[in-house]
From TrEMBL:
GO molecular function (one): metal ion binding
Family of the protein in this entry: Belongs to the tannase family.
Pfam family, one: Tannase
Protein name: Carboxylic ester hydrolase
Record keywords, A-Z: Calcium, Disulfide bond, Hydrolase, Metal-binding, Serine esterase, Signal
This enzyme's EC code(s): 3.1.1.-
Source taxon at top rank: Eukaryota
Length: 349
């Protein structure tokens, strides 16, 4: 359902931005938010501070230019289709920024009640990729298998891998589709059960890491899950005590500048964990507690550099002109990760 949110936003606002326009907004976001963590390295390590201090309206009027290229999408029973994209030149429009901001707000119904999370600032707007119609000379919705198969096949129960159109689809339709899917498939697809007591009591350990600029699975969804586990398993503890208790066996690390299951080329100096299995073995077999997680910069000017990742809820902050990194508590920044999913009466874990 997350992947269909962006196309429905574009249809609702009746603006279909060229891919280059959204790419420019992302690049300007990275440029503006890079140094908020105390280190200017082309990596947004603090998307929470970006939410607090960056206004996407500042990108309006910025020029963009992309050469002609090709785009591959997956349609019709997993077969790929590649089509040519024309050169794109222009300036970031108010409509383009409005689309970007609405996508970043996250799925909600027409009354403004939050249905689901969205991506962090600096994540690519991959779900919002539009299709160029050479017949009309305009950009249009790109309805694909990846963004509509779930609704077509599993909600509407059609023998189809994508929806033929999103005409008349509203935010309230999305909410209803989420509810139907939740009721219909909760017993088979539920992957966010928060009571991990049997696993914990058996001595289980979890090393959980997630790219902070993930453009496919919202990073906030896993922060939300971690917080759900903490609240369910340690309901009578103080905040500090419950984080300590959960952190003894379940560690969550957000990877600065990383995308979906890997690095992000738009932030080349970002690190990525390379020795996670080794870290887990040392933790389980040798009792070496992973206070932080090792990560390696794989390209760019800092290629080969080893960096440390902070465990949630601590956040990275560089000091001494970007030479020393500390993991700090930031209550205001932490609030930006909290979504009140009040569109449903049932709790969402």
């Amino acid at each position: 359902m997350q992947h269909i949110w962006s196309p429905v936003v574009e249809q609702t606002l009746d603006y279909y931005p060229p891919p280059c326009e959204l790419e420019k907004i992302v690049n300007e976001t990275i440029k503006a938010c890079d140094a908020l963590d105390g280190k200017k390295d082309g990596v947004v390590s603090r998307t929470d501070l970006c939410k607090l201090h960056f206004d996407a309206n500042s990108t309006i009027g910025e020029p963009y230019s992309c050469g002609a290229s090709s785009l591959t999408t997956y349609k019709r029973r997993k077969r790929s289709e590649t089509y040519a994209l024309p050169a794109q030149n222009g300036t970031v429009s108010a409509q383009g920024v409005e689309v970007a901001k609405e996508i970043m707000r996250g799925m909600h119904d027409t009354k403004g009640k939050q249905v689901y999370f969205s991506y962090q600032p600096s994540a690519a707007f991959s779900d919002a990729e539009t299709h160029y119609d050479y017949d009309t000379g305009s950009w249009t919705l790109d309805i694909t298998e990846s963004n509509s198969e779930w609704v077509a096949k599993y909600i509407n129960l059609l023998n189809a891998t994508e929806m033929p159109t999103l005409k008349n689809v509203t935010y309230d339709n999305l909410k209803e589709w989420v509810r139907i899917g939740w009721q219909k498939y909760d017993d088979t697809l539920q992957a966010t059960y928060p009571d991990l007591s049997p696993y914990s009591e058996a001595g289980g350990k979890v090393l959980h890491y997630h790219g902070e600029s993930d453009y496919t699975v919202p990073t906030a969804s896993f922060v939300h899950y971690y917080e759900s586990v903490r609240r369910i398993m340690y309901p009578n503890m103080s905040s500090n005590a419950s984080y300590a208790a959960l952190g003894d066996w379940y560690r969550l690390f957000l990877v600065p500048g990383a995308a979906h299951c890997g690095p992000d080329d738009s932030q080349p100096n970002r690190p990525w964990p390379q020795k996670t299995l080794e870290t887990m073995i040392q933790w389980v077999e040798d009792g070496v507690f992973p206070e932080m997680l090792n990560a390696t910069v794989l390209q760019g000017e800092h290629e080969g550099e080893e960096q440390k990742l902070c465990a949630w809820p601590l956040r990275p902050l560089w000091k001494n002109n970007g030479t020393t990194m500390e993991c700090v508590n930031d209550p205001e920044g932490m609030k930006t990760w909290v979504y009140e999913l009040i569109a449903f009466k049932m709790p969402v874990y």
